[in-house]
What we know:
The complex is a heterodimer of chains A (402) and B (74).
Chain A: E1 11-12, H1 26-33, E2 36-40, E3 47-50, H2 53-61, E4 65-66, H3 94-103, H4 108-112, H5 115-132, E5 136-137, H6 138-143, H7 145-155, H8 162-173, H9 180-203, H10 209-219, H11 226-242, H12 244-256, H13 259-267, H14 272-282, E6 293-295, E7 299-301, E8 304-306, E9 311-314, H15 316-319, H16 354-371, E10 376-377, E11 399-401
Parallel strand pairs in A: 1-2, 3-9
Antiparallel strand pairs in A: 2-3, 4-6, 5-11, 6-9, 7-8, 10-11
Helix pairs in contact in A: 5-7, 5-16, 7-11, 8-9, 8-11, 9-10, 9-11, 12-16, 14-16
Chain B: E1 5-9, H1 19-23, E2 28-31, E3 34-37, E4 41-42, H2 46-54, E5 60-64, E6 70-72
Amino acid sequence: MSTGSEIMAARTYPFGDPDRLNLNPLYEQLRRSEPLTRVRLPYGEEAWLATRYDDVRLILGDARFSRAASVGRDEPRTHPHQGESGMLAMDPPEHTRLRKLIAKAFTARRVETLRPRTQEIADQLLDGMQAHGSPADLVEHFATPLPVTVICELLGVPFTDRDRFQLWSEAIISTTSLTPQQIMEYLGNLHAYIAGLIAQRRAQETDDLLGAMVKARDEDEDRLTEAELVQLSAGLLAAGHETTVTQLPNFVYVLLTNPDQLAELRADPTLIPAAVDELMRYVPLGTAAAFARYATEDVMVGDVLVRAGEPVLGALASANRDDKVFEHPDELDFHRESNPHLGFGHGPHHCVGAQLARMELQVALQTLITRFPNLELAVAEEELPWKKGMLVRGLQELPVRW
Amino acid sequence: MSGQWKVAVDRDRCIGSGLCAGTAPDHFELVDKKSTPLRELVDPAEAVSDAADCCPVEAILVTDATTGDTVAPV
């Protein structure tokens, strides 16, 4: 057993610039020989990095690891600004007070009722892409407007304002693509915009999620503060489209560059739900582990003693490639018997939009491959433009032809 | 034993998100990556109904042990 943090020299983290959707091979090496390692990020204090599935799940799910304890600490991070993380800086039961206000709107059952409308949106967007003609940018024509329309309708945010809040939303997932000043300015704009929508609902009730949250606040002010209401709504709007918007092109890119698996999906569309979860496992969405959990007491993580007060980062993408849990983990396999991946996280902060994202991705992939049986990349793979300076890996554009 | 709650988890429906065990660690644990109540009968506790309310697939059912009425999810 290691005696703790003082004996190990810290590695520089992240391990180099992200290379498309390839996971740095150092993660595999660490899972084998040094599952908890010391890392130093560009900003903030030194931390542990967990790379094995069991350890990552432990730090995400065990109540002895806290996000609330990050408040006031110099959090390990890839960007200069230490953003307000809202619910992600809270622990149960405080966190639960807010989580349960929105959880109802995102259950599997509720999300299923949105499937027909999501299908309709997907059909209309692909009609538009067809009319535009080959080649076309899938990000612009399909992957962006689909999730944005769905989250707008769910929340009750006018889709016609998207040019404004889409720009401001980038502030939530930017690391260095925006300056700290821009991030402050955009977040301020986003919050002011949401405050306007909230005021409208006080004047006239609506039956959307934003209306329900306003009602919850006004009926019982102990349930959430005005600031929490604004931050929570802004967070849902931003998270609701920066994530699926990014992941959908990633998925299509993986399928177009793995023709055997794509052919399998075309031959048997009942594989789509399993494929979406396998792609969630396989695609390392984050550019680096983030949102360190702080130990509130001494905890053994594997063979390593993490001392009270020390931060631990969990590498989700590495956990998803752990061969102790996933056979042939580096292969894309739509026939896994179970797929307990951590693509949506784990524990109290498990992605609240997970079921919505699954449904959207299922509808999107199925509709796309059915409507465009000859879909392929319109440029050489090396020419695809990848985003830089973000918490997530994604394509700026995905030019396709058919 | 009147006034107690009965806690049940549908393991077929459970996706192992870990929300319940993280939200109410005194009442739920993950066994083979699926949620399991630590006790079937519990004294009423907000953490238990919260866990049922937060479950993304509504796999947790909390009922009044005497009347059988649903306590959560609501």
